Automatic annotation (TrEMBL):
Name this protein carries in UniProt: histidine kinase
Catalytic activities: ATP + protein L-histidine = ADP + protein N-phospho-L-histidine
Alphabetized UniProt keyword annotations: Coiled coil, Kinase, Phosphoprotein, Transferase, Two-component regulatory system
The keyword Lyase appears for this protein: no
The organism's place on the tree of life at top rank: Bacteria
Entry-linked Pfam families: HATPase_c, HATPase_c_2
Species for this entry: Pontibacter akesuensis
EC number annotated for this UniProt entry: 2.7.13.3
Top-tier EC class: transferase
GO terms assigned for molecular function: phosphorelay sensor kinase activity
SUPFAM superfamilies named in the record: ATPase domain of HSP90 chaperone/DNA topoisomerase II/histidine kinase (SSF55874), Homodimeric domain of signal transducing histidine kinase (SSF47384)
Gene3D superfamilies listed in its UniProt record: 1.10.287.130, Histidine kinase-like ATPase, C-terminal domain
Domain Histidine kinase: 233-444
Source organism phylogeny: Bacteria, Pseudomonadati, Bacteroidota, Cytophagia, Cytophagales
CDD domains: HATPase (cd00075), HisKA (cd00082)
Amino acid sequence: MQRTILKININNELDVVLAYKRAMQLSERLGMQQANQTKFATAVSEICRNVVEHVGSGGIQFSMLDEVGVNYLEALITDRGRGIGNLPSILASHTFMSGSRGSGISNSRKLVDVFDIQSDSEKGTRVMLRKKLPSLGAAVSKAVLDNWTTEFEEDADISPYAEIKKQNMQLLEVMEKLHLQNLEAEQQLLEIRRLNVQLQQSNQDISQLLEDRDRKNRMLEEINQNLDAFAHTVTHDLRAPLQNIDGISTALEACIQTNHLDEAQVMLPMLRHQTQKMDRLITGILAYSLAGHQSIAKKVLDLQVLVPQVISSLDVPPSITFELADELPILYSQEIYLYQVFSNLIGNAIKYYDKPDQGLIRISFESGKEWLHFSVEDNGPGIPQEVQHQIFFMYEIGKAIPRADSSGLGLSIIRKIIEEKGGKVWVESSGRGSRFSFTWPAQELVNEV
């Protein structure tokens, strides 16, 4: 007998987080041991993330079932994509590099008691994950399951994405009201024209109303664009520390399994550093969204320290070396802005480098009267002339220079930050190598005493 508990639509990274959370809650309430709770939730997260990354949308259904006297908690993840063409080779292989295509399926398969996957180019993909329940799970009644479903629907936890959706719905309601006011104002305007001089004052009031409508429409359009950019920024900027945490956790698990506790102890500060970095990013991004662009606190930043910190946070192959300007400046500015700009530019130079050795990334700086000039130059494959004007817009770099691990957001985030500061960003590339340059207000330069 199978009893459905909960269904969730999977459309983005935050839905993946929600699926992980519900998997943990259900497995805990059904009496699983903590280790098995984590295994089941991690398997759910891996498959749901595959849906988001490779298809875009899908769904998950949690159920409880009894099969031949054994109780299971089941997660059924489905999508309507084009299927997985190399599924037999993925299932046959036992070794995957972390983050490679197919690693999510392989990892999830190891974490559950029952695993089944069906994939078809016309029907999409269906993945079934089951974890055994202790005996007390069998005693859960339908009324209890219904009560849990109600609790989840009334869950008061508010994520940044949920708050954005709520605000966006409110803005759409305001837009609809303004549309109705516009129709009413236009009707009144026709009547005002017939009344001539006697209704001159009313005519002025209507004109003012129309001006307010246009101003508010422009404000709403800008707010919607900012909300969209904010949601994408959260997803884009949190991926790097999450991937680092995943890699460190995998290595840590291997050390523990092989009883190399000294090596494991060395990795703990690295793990803590990545979580602290993620906390700084979340705090800064929320400040960016909730406090307003001009309200982010400034601080004194030594780029001679900040830029190496950015480089150390990235996954840099041994084949790539760096050349930094001898004297990078000290600025009084927003740390989250400068961190994102350098992280995205340097990260792209690393990501798109196409040779096994001799990679070079040069970071230079020139001071001007009104603007500071920064450059990040590489000896990579270069950028074709015909697409250089596109890459600073959202998703365009992914179309111009396709990569499976690129979200297409990094350069659009850089452009938004630089324009917020009043500066400019551009690229120069002719043949091999690219030089990304941007300007920063010289008034933020701290002159050393």
